[in-house]
Structure formats: C-alpha cells, structure tokens
Amino acid sequence: MTAGPLWTAPGRSRVATFVTVPDAEGTAAFATAVFGAVPRAAPIRKSDGTLWNTEMNIGDSTIMISRADGDMVRPGFLYVTVPDAAATLARAVAHGATRVMPVERRFYGADDGGGEDPAGNWWWISTNVEDLTDEQIADRARTAEKATR
After folding, report:
1. Cα separation of 144 and 118, whole Å?
2. How many independent structural domains does the chain possess?
3. What is the DSSP string of 9-67?
4. What is the pLDDT of residues 81-125, one digit of tens each?
5. pLDDT of 69 higher than 90
6. CA-CA to 131 of 20 to 30 Å: which in 32, 51, 118, 119?
C-alpha cells in the first residue's frame, strides 16, 4: 500500500470496515484463516491480556476489529473479492461460519455467496467471472427481477 497524506495512518485504507464484537480474538483468527488477513499494526491488548483492538489487511483493504459488549456490539457485513469464491466459502464454513447463501453465478458477472461467522459478521465472498458493461448488468437485472415475480 502506498503512503498517503500525513493525516492517514500508514498502511490503512482510507475507508476501513470496523466491526465490534464480543470475541475480537476469534474474529481476527477467522479473518486470518479464511482470507489470509495479516496484522497492519501490533494489536492493542487490555491489562488482562485480552484483545482490545486490532487492524488487519485483507489485500489492499483494512478491517478493524474491536472487543465490545452490550450496545457497542456491531457485527459487520463485509464484501470480499477472492480468486475462488466457492473454495473460500467452504474454508469459512470449515472455520465455523454458517452458510447463508451458496455461491452461484449472479447477473452482475460474479460467482458469490455468503456466510455468517461465529461472531455474527456476514462475509459476502465474490469472484468476478465476467466484465460487463453497466447496460448489460441493467438488462440482466431486469431479467432476474422478472424471474422472481
């Protein structure tokens, strides 16, 4: 990742997903096992050793994961592009996710599907398989919409 302006943290994407969950350690381990997430910086731990906050990169994007309880718990809905959506969703399920939608070819030119991790985050996993114009996507969307009526 290239260096940004002084007002941005080095290595952090300008827009970062931030999930706050009771088990930040488990969510970080899930992101590492399934998506190859790597720490962007040293994690911050509370005095008792529990994970308080960590920032990880998945490719060129940053995900921030914090431990939270009560009203601060805010699981996320993350869209991750990978080389093989079906294999990645299978890996997610092997690491405790519940499949919420199987990977299928979509009208917008992607194979995608999703799973919910043990902390309640939804991970939408996608592989682009066709480069389509906006017009082609709109036409296919109308066709898909008619098929669901």
Report:
1. 32
2. 1
3. -TT--SS-EEEEES-HHHHHHHHHHHH--EESSPPEE-TTS-EEEEEEEETTEEEEEEE
4. 999 999 999 999 999 999 999 999 999 999 999 999 999 999 999
5. no
6. 32
